[in-house]
Amino acid sequence: MAKRKQAREIVLKYEGRLTRTRGYQTAGADLLKKLSRVLYNIVVLFIPWEVRIKKIESHFGSGVASYFIFLRWLFGINIVLTIMTGAFIVLPEAVIPPGTFNAILIRDRCWSPYSESSVKSLSNI
């Protein structure tokens, strides 16, 4: 009789954890945690020099690792600026034929002290 009472107390104590739905929820949560960890490990593989920096950090400490992380950040900024320069300066210069805009700019906006408009503006003085 005492064992039966003890078993009933255990069942009542852990009843919420012993249901089939709760078991599925727990298994699903565990699977989600494992999956997110695997995906995080895959993402870490694509970060440049992450594994090597971690190895350096394990040998020499976080101060040295932060220096290399800063260098990696500078390298990334340099890559972004190179792409922007190529996209907005080099590529248009390569695609547009030479002399297309230069003739328009020289004819319309070039100012010369000997131009007709500047001589007329000074003649009123």
What topology does this entry show?
Layout: H1 2-13, H2 15-18, H3 20-45, H4 50-60, H5 62-95, H6 100-109, H7 116-122
Helix pairs in contact: 4-5
Description of the structure:
- The protein is an all-alpha fold.
- The protein folds into two domains: 1-46; 47-110, no CATH class.
- It has seven helices and no strands.
- It has helices at residues 2-13, 15-18, 20-45, 50-60, 62-95, 100-109, 116-122.
- The protein starts with a helix and ends with a helix.
Question: Can I get a quick summary?
Answer:
By secondary structure, the protein is mostly helical.
Range of strand content: under 5%
Put simply, the count of helices is 7
Task: Kindly provide the radius of gyration, computed on alpha-carbon positions and rounded to a whole number of angstroms.
Answer: 36 Å
Distance from first to last alpha carbon = 123 Å
Along the chain, the helix and strand elements come as HHHHHHH
Please state the average pLDDT score. Answer: 82
Overall shape: it is elongated
Reported for the largest beta sheet, the result is: none
Helix content: over 70%
The total domain count is: 2
The number of strands is 0
GO molecular function: mechanosensitive monoatomic ion channel activity
Transmembrane segments: 64-91
Keywords: Membrane, Transmembrane, Transmembrane helix
